């Protein structure tokens, strides 16, 4: 809406228009801006929690995959049918029969085949679209809980509106883009899974808005009027800018009952980010200083950080202001909304970022969340990243169209040749049109309908195949393409893998353990805590057990002197398990906690009965200065009560079934392994964690976390035990951790990392060092200074954290595996042998994808890896041999890449900045070109090429700004080299791909005339699936969008082997043979017609009169030809045993020009033999000529069919018998067209047999001899 940015500052106008009912003008404006809802409304938008929107939006949140509705079905189907030139041509020919001077036969005779074709196509389209409507309905009628009128109401997904408050529980799909208002977690955190959107397996940590999280119930949230102002719809999952404004009135506070002290909000909880989030490194590492604050006080503060400057300039309004009451009263009378009360209220603004937003089709992974709908329908991020499935036409259809053009030329040449003897006299065009109708059988009208029926049979065979159960074809357009795939582009997560992570090996100095050695590990560390209790500082618990701080000073576990560990296997093993259980961002959750929803439960922390719920409140307090006045102290409780509570707590913790939630499945797997070894994580929040070590609790305070990132490749955590001793645990990739380690005890690390990598395992190195109080205080001081820096903040922070990352003790090495789908390795091996190149496209990290590529067999052990990525480019220097002529005197490559990555090409209009951007980009392009040339010169057949999104974007899209000939030439050179490299490589791994990048890669291959098959299971794979020649969707655990948008739906990746090698082969071979037969039949009829007209002085007289022509173009030969649809050239066992047979199919020899010309020659030869033989042997009447000619043609076609069959099916025999019965019955029905007296003689049968054998036998002998002298490949393989 133009001017919204300016008008929004007028509070009175803004509030009135936000809540007023929509008008007809609003609807017209909406449809004008969205081109009748075909594109997003490009405007910022304001959404209130009462359902008001500005601008007024009319969006539908349902999924629409269907193509027709009740009104558009008939016209759109007819339009699609007559867009085909053949159908339009026959329609024109039929219309000519309405003109008496052009009439050759009755118009009904020619209209009937065309009507039959169109009717069958309409029936097929109607059935397919009805199925789409059913699938859409199942998706759109899913019920979700919406809070309306002080109660929850179940609302279907398609009826969701903007500004509604939705409640979702663990495992539910998110039906719209939501602003997270409240979660069941006290800290406002919730994990979501987005692998269906961006392909990343790591769970995303989302944060609720601090103001609404502080409220105890959903009713209180809705009682406080709020307006969310968000950016215009975009397709970016990783960035978001907005703000939410709360109109804080006295009445709203009174209605919320002003939360009691026990429900107060910890100000640090709402302001300090989670140590596990990506921006934790920007927060100040302070110890817990909890100040409980009342909700009213919280609402009077303004939380406004990290707001996008541009949006803030547009939308920022004055906080805590009142509007002049001298405004026009007439304006206020226009609305019944209580605008004045809101104008006089305080306005609290809180900034929003991507951490506050949960995208559509994400899966809630933890707890219960309450969210406000801010984008629905086509405005949602998931919809903007997906493309509507377009009609696909395969290479087989294109080849047929080319043959149709040749057939039309043949038909025109025949018409001209028949006109030449009599010359182009007056009214020659009438004769030409008549011949055009007589020779129209050259272009077989029934071919289209025959192929449509055949494709339906192919799909039914796929559905009924018990070896690939639940496989569902969703189109009948492209089954032949399954037999000619050149490239298979596959997703990783959920497609090749199960996304189930398991720890396979744990290495320590003196050996390694597998996941089957859990009992051995438990035995070795059974007495560890009790052993250390005697020498370490310990505190006796109320239950009599020794609660030992196993990391306290004086403990034998960690010796302070130079951070050396006591050289003892049990010690090493124990510390490695502690590292697994401490260094992570995982939170435990019990089944009872998962099942219950405490969001709307008021807190009664004053009740002593609740003491046993939280073990951390009963164990030793970690900071005596922390805690609110309303929290009971253990010291003030009777010892007997404490003993009973502690015993019940410990028993409940140990016996309860714990589950774990975290942003990384790898971390969850490591924590679960430690849990199995009796080092259990029982409680974790932002500030503390509690471990149970062999049943003895260990309390640790979280002081600081260094989050993991793809650049640093490591994660660290600083904890403090009960004795005040500080410990630094770190884990990361070996390339970054090895330089931080002490030399002694780590010499074996590199070799073992290589061994695990060759096994396809992802490795993590764990390290440890103790930190003194003075060292930690110095670190905190320097970190605070770096965190407040306005320039190079990230670099300074990393420099400060680097002061801790040295002299570390090697703890252990872990190898984890993402479990593959069943039979993935053997399937990929068979597809490789079939000549199909396999590429992996994933949104995941390079290291993760590389391990999966090795595990599934994409790369063999003797193959090498060539990587071109941001990390690799940043490491290139002239000394390392990386493009020495490019760097020159300019800035280092990392600085160039950083500048290019951060440059906003859409909004930056600074001429100098654009020039510098182009110069840097040109240098980076030359570096990439150099690397690609290096790859090409190497052994490309034995190398896995790895590319990331940065390189893909530069190579595929012209990122240069402006029109510069030199830069354009540079880009074209890079693109050509990029395509050449891809085509030469056998295996390519694309990492960090966005959904659009995946589609761009498919387009790139299709532009090189390659047939591409894409397979995936998530929403992020839909563009790739839709763009490919053949799109295959795996039925995911959470989402069906990929399956619904695909051409074929599978439940397992391994089913693709049978789908391509068996069903693809049969579909292509059968359709090709049937097409050749139908073309052959039409040409024979035309040749016989031409010879007949020739003996009658080139007059356009029909030889096949009346319904005879309809019979020979439809029901006489239809059933026999359909016997080819059931034929099997090779048995199933041989096809699956020899995937090399698939290579021959990709050459396309079944329907090329050479094969076509051979069939044309056969048709001319047999047509001439039939007509000339009939002329010689008929008995002086036209009906006898028709009798012997038509019967000979019928018998010849049966013989041709029998000679082409490789496998006799019972339906084939039934079809042949039924066809013979139909033909001989038609002799009686159409007795006026046949000489029944001549047919009754014995001479008729031997004449028909002689003519038919004379036309068939020479062709059969030639084919038989050719098969012996030059056998096809399948015979060679099977015999061998």
UniProtKB/TrEMBL annotation:
Residues 57-108 form the P-type ATPase N-terminal domain. It is a multi-pass membrane protein. Residues 255-296 are annotated as: Disordered. Its main location: membrane. GO terms for cellular component: endosome; plasma membrane; trans-Golgi network. GO terms for biological process: endocytosis; phospholipid translocation; retrograde vesicle-mediated transport, Golgi to endoplasmic reticulum. It catalyses: ATP + H2O + phospholipidSide 1 = ADP + phosphate + phospholipidSide 2. The chain crosses the membrane at residues 108-127, 400-419, 425-447, 1078-1098, 1104-1126, 1156-1176, 1211-1232, 1244-1266. It is found in: Membrane. Residues 1044-1271 form the P-type ATPase C-terminal domain. Mg(2+) binds at residues 491, 493, 1017, 1021. Signal peptide: none annotated. Keywords: ATP-binding, Magnesium, Membrane, Metal-binding, Nucleotide-binding, Translocase, Transmembrane, Transmembrane helix. The keyword Transmembrane helix applies. GO terms for molecular function: ATP binding; ATP hydrolysis activity; ATPase-coupled intramembrane lipid transporter activity; magnesium ion binding. ATP binds at residues 491-493, 667, 708, 731, 762, 842-844, 992, 998, 1020-1021. The active site is at 491 (4-aspartylphosphate intermediate). Gene3D superfamilies: Calcium-transporting ATPase, cytoplasmic domain N (3.40.1110.10), Calcium-transporting ATPase, cytoplasmic transduction domain A (2.70.150.10), Calcium-transporting ATPase, transmembrane domain (1.20.1110.10), HAD superfamily/HAD-like (3.40.50.1000). Its EC number is 7.6.2.1. It is an enzyme of class 7 (translocase). Its cofactor is Mg(2+). NCBIfam families: ATPase-Plipid, ATPase_P-type. Belongs to the cation transport ATPase (P-type) (TC 3.A.3) family. Type IV subfamily. This is Phospholipid-transporting ATPase. It comes from Theileria parva.
């Amino acid at each position: 809406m133009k001017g919204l940015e300016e008008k929004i500052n007028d509070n009175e106008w803004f509030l009135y228009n936000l809540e007023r009912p929509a008008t007809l003008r609003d609807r017209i404006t909406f449809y004008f801006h969205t081109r009748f809802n075909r594109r997003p409304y490009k405007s910022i938008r304001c959404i209130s929690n009462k359902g008001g929107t500005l601008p007024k939006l009319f969006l539908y949140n349902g999924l629409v995959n269907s193509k027709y509705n009740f009104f558009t079905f008939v016209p759109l189907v007819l339009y699609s049918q007559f867009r085909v030139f053949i159908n339009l041509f026959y329609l024109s020919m039929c219309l000519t029969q309405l003109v008496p001077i052009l009439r050759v036969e009755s118009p009904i005779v020619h209209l009937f085949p065309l009507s039959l074709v169109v009717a069958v196509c309409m029936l097929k389209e109607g059935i397919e679209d009805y199925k789409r409507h059913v699938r859409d309905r199942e998706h759109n009628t899913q019920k979700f809980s919406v809070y309306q009128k002080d109660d929850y109401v179940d609302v279907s997904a398609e009826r969701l509106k903007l500004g509604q408050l939705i409640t979702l529980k663990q495992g539910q799909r998110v039906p719209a883009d939501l602003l997270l208002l409240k979660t069941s977690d006290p800290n406002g955190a919730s994990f979501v899974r987005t692998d269906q959107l961006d392909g990343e397996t790591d769970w995303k940590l989302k944060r609720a808005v601090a103001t609404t999280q502080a409220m105890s119930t959903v009713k209180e949230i809705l009682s406080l009027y709020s307006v969310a102002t968000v950016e215009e719809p975009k397709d970016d999952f990783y960035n978001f800018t907005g703000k939410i404004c709360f109109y804080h009135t006295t009445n709203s506070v009174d209605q919320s009952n002003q939360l009691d002290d026990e429900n107060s909000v910890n100000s640090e909880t709402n302001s300090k980010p989670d140590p596990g989030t990506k921006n934790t490194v920007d927060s100040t590492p302070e110890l817990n200083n909890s100040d409980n604050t009342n909700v009213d006080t919280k609402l009077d503060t303004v939380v406004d950080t990290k707001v996008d400057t541009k949006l803030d300039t547009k939308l920022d309004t004055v906080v805590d202001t009142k509007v002049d009451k001298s405004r026009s009263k007439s304006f206020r009378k226009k609305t019944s909304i209580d605008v004045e009360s809101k104008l006089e209220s305080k306005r609290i603004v809180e900034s929003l970022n991507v951490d506050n937003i949960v995208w559509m089709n994400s899966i809630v992974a933890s707890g219960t969340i309450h969210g406000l709908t801010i984008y629905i329908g086509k405005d949602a991020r998931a919809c903007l990243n997906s493309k509507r499935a377009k009609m696909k036409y395969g290479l087989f259809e294109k080849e047929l169209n080319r043959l149709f053009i040749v057939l039309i030329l043949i038909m025109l040449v025949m018409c001209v040749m028949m006109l030449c003897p009599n010359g182009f006299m007056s009214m020659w065009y009438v004769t030409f049109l008549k011949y055009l109708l007589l020779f129209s059988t050259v272009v077989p009208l029934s071919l289209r309908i025959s192929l449509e029926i055949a494709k339906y049979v192919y799909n039914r065979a796929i559905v009924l195949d018990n070896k690939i159960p639940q496989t569902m074809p969703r189109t009948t357009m492209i089954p032949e393409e399954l037999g000619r795939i050149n490239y298979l582009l596959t997703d990783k997560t959920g497609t090749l893998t199960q996304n189930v992570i398991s720890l396979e090996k744990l290495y320590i100095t003196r050996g390694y353990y597998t996941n089957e050695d859990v009992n051995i590990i438990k035995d070795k560390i059974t007495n560890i805590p009790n052993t250390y209790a005697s020498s370490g500082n310990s505190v006796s618990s109320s239950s009599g057990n020794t609660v030992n701080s196993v990391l306290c000073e004086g403990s034998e576990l960690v010796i302070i002197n130079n951070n050396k560990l006591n050289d003892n296997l049990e010690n090493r093993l124990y510390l490695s398990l502690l590292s697994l259980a401490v260094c992570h961002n995982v939170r435990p959750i019990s089944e009872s906690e998962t099942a219950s929803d405490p969001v709307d439960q008021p807190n009664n922390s004053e009740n002593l009965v609740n003491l046993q719920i939280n073990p951390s409140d009963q164990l030793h307090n970690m900071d005596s200065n922390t805690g609110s006045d309303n929290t009971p102290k253990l010291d003030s409780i009777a010892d007997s009560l404490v003993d009973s509570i502690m015993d019940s707590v410990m028993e409940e913790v140990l016996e309860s079934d714990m589950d774990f939630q975290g942003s990384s499945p790898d971390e969850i797997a490591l924590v679960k392994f430690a849990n199995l070894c009796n080092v259990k994580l029982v409680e974790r929040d932002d500030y503390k964690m509690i471990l149970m070590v062999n049943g003895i609790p260990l309390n640790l305070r979280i002081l600081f976390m260094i989050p993991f990132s793809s650049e640093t490749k490591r994660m660290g955590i600083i904890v403090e035990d009960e004795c005040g001793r500080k410990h630094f645990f770190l884990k990361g990739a070996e390339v970054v951790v090895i330089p931080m380690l002490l030399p002694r005890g780590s010499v074996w690390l590199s070799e073992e990392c290589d061994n695990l990598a060759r096994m396809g395992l992802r490795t993590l190195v764990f390290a440890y060092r103790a930190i003194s109080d003075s060292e930690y205080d110095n670190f905190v001081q320097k970190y605070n200074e770096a965190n407040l820096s306005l320039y190079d903040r990230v670099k300074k922070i990393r420099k400060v954290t680097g002061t801790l990352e040295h002299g570390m003790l090697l703890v252990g090495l872990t190898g984890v595996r993402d479990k593959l789908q069943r039979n993935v390795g053997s399937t990929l091996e068979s597809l490789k042998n079939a000549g199909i190149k396999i590429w992996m496209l994933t949104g995941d990290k390079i290291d993760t994808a590389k391990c999966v590529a090795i595990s599934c067999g994409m790369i063999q052990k003797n193959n090498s890896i060539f990587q071109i990525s941001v990390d690799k480019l940043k490491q290139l220097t002239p000394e390392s041999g990386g493009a020495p002529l490019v760097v020159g005197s300019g800035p280092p490559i990392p600085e160039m890449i950083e500048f290019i990555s951060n440059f906003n090409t859409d909004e930056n209009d600074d001429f100098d900045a654009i020039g510098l951007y182009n110069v840097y980009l040109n240098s980076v392009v030359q570096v990439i070109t150099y690397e690609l040339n290096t790859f090409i010169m190497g052994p490309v057949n034995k190398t896995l090429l790895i590319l990331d999104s940065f390189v893909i974007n530069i190579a595929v899209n012209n990122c240069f700004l402006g029109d510069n000939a030199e830069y354009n030439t540079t880009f074209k050179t890079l693109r050509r080299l990029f395509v050449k490299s891809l085509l030469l490589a056998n295996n390519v791994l694309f990492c960090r791909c966005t959904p659009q990048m995946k589609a761009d890669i498919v387009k790139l291959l299709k532009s090189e005339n390659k047939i591409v098959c894409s397979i995936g299971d998530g929403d992020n794979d839909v563009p790739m699936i839709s763009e490919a020649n053949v799109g295959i969707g795996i039925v995911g655990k959470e989402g069906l969008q990929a399956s619904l948008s695909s051409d074929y739906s599978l439940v397992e990746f391994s089913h693709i082997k049978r789908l391509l090698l068996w069903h693809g082969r049969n579909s292509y071979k059968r359709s090709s043979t049937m097409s050749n037969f139908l073309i052959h039949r039409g040409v024979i009829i035309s040749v016989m017609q031409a010879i007949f007209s020739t003996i009658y002085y080139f007059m356009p007289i029909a030889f096949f009169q009346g319904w005879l022509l309809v019979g020979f173009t439809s029901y006489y030969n239809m059933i026999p030809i359909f016997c080819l649809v059931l034929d099997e050239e090779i048995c199933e066992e041989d096809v699956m045993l020899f995937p090399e047979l698939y290579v021959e199919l990709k050459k396309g020899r079944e329907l090329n020009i050479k094969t076509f010309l051979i069939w044309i020659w056969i048709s001319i030869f047999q047509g001439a033999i039939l007509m000339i033989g009939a002329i010689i042997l008929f008995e002086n009447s036209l009906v006898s000529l028709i009798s012997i000619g038509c019967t000979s043609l019928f018998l010849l076609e049966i013989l041709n069919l029998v000679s082409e069959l490789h496998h006799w099916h019972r339906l084939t025999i039934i079809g042949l018998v039924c066809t013979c019965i139909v033909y001989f019955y038609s002799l009686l029905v159409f007795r006026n067209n046949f000489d029944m007296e001549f047919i009754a003689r014995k001479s008729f049968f031997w004449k028909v047999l002689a003519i038919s054998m004379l036309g068939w036998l020479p062709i059969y002998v030639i084919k038989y001899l050719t098969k012996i002298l030059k056998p096809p490949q399948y015979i060679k393989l099977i015999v061998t």
